[in-house]
Structures are given as C-alpha cells and as structure tokens.
Amino acid sequence: MTTVADVIVARLCDAGVRHVFGVPGGGSNLDLVAACGRAGLPFVLTATETGGAIAALAQAEISGRPGACLTTLGPGVAAVVNGAACARLERAPLLVFTDAAPDGTTFEHQRLDHRALLAPVTKWSTVIDDSTVADAMAQAVACATEEPRGPVHLECPGDVLARPFTDSPATFAAYRTARLAKTRKRHRGSGADPSGNVDLLRRCERPLLLVGLGARDAATASSIRALCASHRIPALVTYKAKGVVADADSWFAGVFTNGAVERPVIEQADVLIAVGLDAVELLPRAWTYAQPLVHVPSSEVAALFSALDVSRWSHAALQQALARQRAAVCVAADRLAPHRVVEIAARAAPRARVAVDAGAHMFPATMLWPIGEPNGMLISNGLSTMGFALPAAIGAALLERQGGHSSERHTFALTGDGGLLMCAGELATAAREGLHLIVIVFDDQALSLIDIKQQQRRMSRSGVDITAVDWRAVGQSMGVRGHTVTTEGELASALETALQHRGPSLIDVRVDSGGYPAILHAVRG
Predict the structure, then answer these.
(1) Which of 161, 163, 297, 355 can pair with 393 through a Cys bridge, CB separation 3.0 to 4.6 Å?
(2) How far is the C-alpha of 85 from the C-alpha of 95, rounded, in Å?
(3) Which helix (DSSP H) or strand (DSSP E) does residue 389 occupy?
C-alpha cells in the first residue's frame, strides 16, 4: 500500500533531497521517517530542531536542491523558528514538515498556531491532505526553489500521513517547469540588465564587480572568472559568495560587506557592478559610495563581455590593497592568535570545506581561509545566527560521504565557545554518523564580539563571560576525539592527528582575544 507519507518522500527524492533531518515526535513524523526508510532516503536525528534545519540548509546551498527537516508539534515547531528564519535570510530552499494534532482534536495541550508562528519566516505554508498531497508537494518544491529561494512549511496532521494514497500522481515535472518559466519571465522583464547602461559601462576605466550569493551557480561563477581574466576586472565577494572568484585568483580583490576594510579598493573604482548581490548580505548601514551602481542579474553576465572594455586597473596596486586587508586581521598576540589558528588549519587542509559561526573569530576566518569554489565556505550572513557552524558542517560532511569519493574531502567547523554551547549536542550527531569532521573551538571564555560592543559604548563588562568548559572532555563524552592546544606547534600536531582520524574530532584552541577590538575596527570601521 502506498501511503500519503510515501508520496511525500517520493517527491522529496524527485526534487533531489539527500537527507531528512530533525527531531521526531509521536505523530505523523513517525510515518514520514518510516517512509524515508522504505525509500532509502536517510533520516538523520539531530540534537535540536534548529540544528536539523541548518544541516538541511547547508545541503541545499551546496547541492542547489531543496533541503528537508521535520519537527514535532508545539515546542518542536517553536524550536525550529531560528533555523527557518536562517533559511529565509540565507535564501536557501528548505522544506519544513511539522506534526499537528489530528483534525477534530479539541484539547489545548501543546496546541500552537504553527502556520501563524512560521508565517514571518517562510515563503508559503499549507496543510497536507490525502486528496491534494501530490499537488501540495509540487507547489512546495516550486515555491522553495523559486527566486528568491527560501523555506516553505508543510503541516502534517497526525492521522493523514498513514492513509492510503489512491489519487493519480500530479505531473510534478510539468508543474515545476511551469512555475520556473514564470519566474524566468518575471526576471527578464525586471529591466535589471546591463543593456540600459551600455554607454556608462563603455566609458568606465576601472569597473569593480561586487559579487553576491545569487552568483554561486557553477555557470555564473565560471563566467565571472572569465570576465575578470579577459577584461582585467577585480572582484570583491560577499561572505556567502566566497569562492565564486577564488581567493587565489589574480583578480580577487577581497571580501565585501559594506564595511571599512574594502573601502580603499572601492574608492578607486569608477563604476560598481553588482552581480547576484542581495541587500541581506550587507551590514545594515547607509550606502555612502558615490559611483554609479549597476545591478546585473546572474543570467546577464555574458552581456558584460561586450559592454566593457579592458580596464585600466593596476594589478600590482590591487595585490597590495588585498595584502593590507589581510594584514588588518593579523594582530600580534601574547598567546595563540586567532589569525594563526586560521592560517595553520587552512594550510593543513587546503581542499577542506569550512563552516564558520558568528562571532569575532569570523573576521580572520573569512579573510584568511582561501576558498576555491562556490559554497566552499558556509556561513550565516543574513541572520548571522550563533550555533550555525557545527550543524552546517554536519550537513556538508554527510553530502561528502554520500558522494562516494575515494578521497573524502575534509569538513571543518570554526566556532566560538559561545556558539558551540548553543549546539553542543550536535557533537553526538557527528559521532553517531561517524563523520570525518573537525571542529575548531576558538576558546576565550567570553562572548568576545558582544564584549567589544560594550567597550565601544563605554558600558561596564556584564553578561559576556562564559564559564570555562573542558571541551576536550565534552567531545570525548559524546564519542568525538578531543584535543586541547595552547601553542602553534600543539595545534599543528592536533590537526595532523585529526585529519588522519576517520571520525569526528574537536580541537579546543585557547586563543588570545586581545586583538579582536583592533580587528573589528579595521574590518567594520
């Protein structure tokens, strides 16, 4: 017998979903998990609902296909809000399945208005019914993957998913094709293309590309790299667009956040060309650049080859400016400096994919860890949520293992101790799954970024100190091999051991946070 849950899972497989994550309850979730088992779609139990959503979000960013997670009703739905909000502001397609009381239930126990709760952070919501499930799934996938991508919510009443499915399946492929055709037509008609700016682009001598998250697909990235090389045009990339133009590319000009560190490069440009740039990627402050800003959809990059002439940028001057940007996050320290942690780890695993948490360590990580391809760095930039790096790395490592490569790519999570406290239970997830994952904890026993902001506002230090945690022992208690390091030599040795270990490892790095205020001032102003 084919059940409603079987139809849901079949549609997930058709859409390219690779794992379903989450924390199940005792209702329709169990039917969904059972259907995943029948279809060979792995279900991964996570420690938290938000951890499940972020792991799924990471897989969506890497694969370009939707991610999927599930929660129980009531508290489970409330707990997934952060993950759903993260997907909404990171522009990641995510299907969020929530349990619900069966129709006709009158008791108030654990009853919340799930759709109202998730409405501000999702693109669309529906209730699954046995007579419309195929259409609902087709619409959900189409909505999640339609630009701007984001999460959708599917509520599953407790008595529905186990019912037999008797209707003929919806034409999923045709439905999705029609939706995407409408999307392409709408974007073509938006007028945001270089054709209306030909004279401006033809006259410019030093155009500068500002590359954002909308340019991460392989074809667009390839076109942008070719444009940079053929026309000698430098490119700044946002955090989420790291790797679209590789850090090692001779025309890579640094990271763009609407901060201070990139300003010397931008001020030399006479035209700014934004490709795939999303306002959610930028610091929420006024735009103060006077140059013309031309927005170019990713689909129109090819038109820039004929619209632009070879630039007059000085390659040597650009390289010097980039060196100054990197030097700004390399502040001397009495003990192990955060930037040295990044440099040593990146040198030990140059091909690794890295997930970066919110916090002060983010600045040296994003500036100094070289990335060679789109989505080689996973980071929460829209919501900038703490507790992102570890579950994102879990999602990435699962994809890597599922790819069946003979030489599995290493996956790193760079997190502060505050961020890891928010998702420490996911260490058990990594151990249970036997993932080749290395967690580096920048351990300074404080919420350092918040501490700096208190100092900037001349406030008394309060609410930012973290009790010392023996992270090595915490990891080992959950089946993760642990290391504690205080010197560069100890770090290099721990990395060598962790890279050879086939399971997850945690390296507790006792860093000197004294240079963070200078780094923050240099990067953001």
Answers:
(1) 355
(2) 12
(3) helix 389-402
The residue type found at 233 is I
At the second CATH level, the architecture of 4-186 is 3-Layer(aba) Sandwich (3.40)
pTM: 0.93
- Could you say which DSSP state residue 378 is in? E
Domain limits, CATH 3.40.50.1220, in the chain: 194-326
Helical residues (DSSP H) of 403-478, grouped into ranges: 417-421, 426-433, 448-456, 471-477
The ranges of the chain annotated as CATH 3.40.50.970 are 4-186, 329-524
Q: How many CB atoms lie within 10 A of CB 335?
A: 12
- Helix (H) or strand (E) run with residue 235 in it: strand 235-237
Show the tokens assigned to 287.
């735009």
Which pLDDT belongs to residue 361?
A: 95
What does the alpha-carbon distance between residue 89 and residue 96 come to, in Å, rounded to a whole number? Answer: 15
User: Which pair of tokens denotes residue 274?
Assistant: 């934004």
Q: What is the mean pLDDT of residues 171-190?
A: 48
pLDDT, tens only, 421-480:
999 999 999 999 999 999 999 999 888 888 888 888 888 888 888 889 999 999 999 999
Inter-CA distances, 265 with 269, 316, 366, 371, 388, Å: 7, 12, 18, 20, 31
CA 171 to each of CA 135, 164, 192, 317: distance values in angstroms, whole numbers, following the listed order:
8, 19, 33, 56
- Give the span between the Cα atoms of 219 and 443, in whole angstroms: 39
Q: Of 218, 483, 208, 158, which Cα lies nearest the Cα of 318? A: 208
Which CATH number does 194-326 carry? 3.40.50.1220
Q: Which tokens go with 11?
A: 């549609």
Handedness of CA 278, 96, 74, 393 (dihedral sign): negative
Q: Which CATH architecture has domain 329-524?
A: 3-Layer(aba) Sandwich (3.40)
Q: How far is CA 167 from CA 7, 131, 365, 520, in A?
A: 11, 7, 52, 59
